[in-house]
Here is the input.
Amino acid sequence: MKTKITELFGIKYPIIQGGMIWCSGWELASAVSNSAGLGLIGAGSMYPEILRQHIQKCKNATNKPFGVNLPLIYPQINEHIKIILEEGVKIVFTSAGNPKKYTSYLKEKGLKVVHVVANVKFAQKCVEAGVDAIVAEGYEAGGHNGFEENTTMTLIPQVCSAVDIPVIAAGGIATGAGLVAALALGAEGVQIGSRFAASVESSAHENFKNAILSTKDGETMVAFKKLIPVRLIKNDFYRRVKEIEDKGADVEELNELLGKGRAKLGMFEGKLSEGELEIGQISGLINEIKSAKEIIDEIVLESGIVFEKLRKIK
Here is the structure.
């Protein structure tokens, strides 16, 4: 399955594992890369030296390409970048910030740089910044989200029409049919988060993985729109957020309720009532915890079946 994305990263399948906080450690990243996709270490929930350890363990666990997802709002980002360069990482996915800030520097050091966007305007800014590819992420996605509420189905063709570099589709994709749909819309690959969050190798707590399996359609919602929109499972914590948002809570009140470590509490420590449980709408289709290899093999097999079915349509 050759696309511009497989050629860019030197991988067999155009499947990228999202660099999710508290879920995407070296075990998941290396397992995805060893299965012919592109694994990403999620630096957003790691102190600098923890990131170094994960990179080193990932290098020991795979000889395939892998990368690091780097949120640009991370307070110790300069230390993260220093470690990424020292450890010889060749691929970086940046998010939550202006792509112009670090892209040229990283590319001068020989890295391939991809930036995550939620609208056409920022996709065009990415081209101006010189990124190698773009992840266009729809509103269905879990975790941090776009303010515009653009869905994947509408976002991908608009971004593909506006830019001349490879586009990776994200948000609401977890199956082979989703991969085929993304390619049909003009994308050159997909980034998958939620399904890998519930994988064997995910560093998420088993309680959170099981919560993903039990989440049905309509049981996730975007909250904190006055801060940074984030899609959450509707647990007790979400209901408290919604209650004060409905009463017109300001940024200060929302920050106070969010506090520190809320995502770690829910996703990594398994405190399902009080924690922030970030997951996408596609969780309604996830009903079994499988290995990264099983997930990728299943997606590839299903995509082949869907391609063949489409060929028979007259």
Summary: The longest strand covers residues 66-71. The longest helix spans residues 292-311. The mean pLDDT is 96.
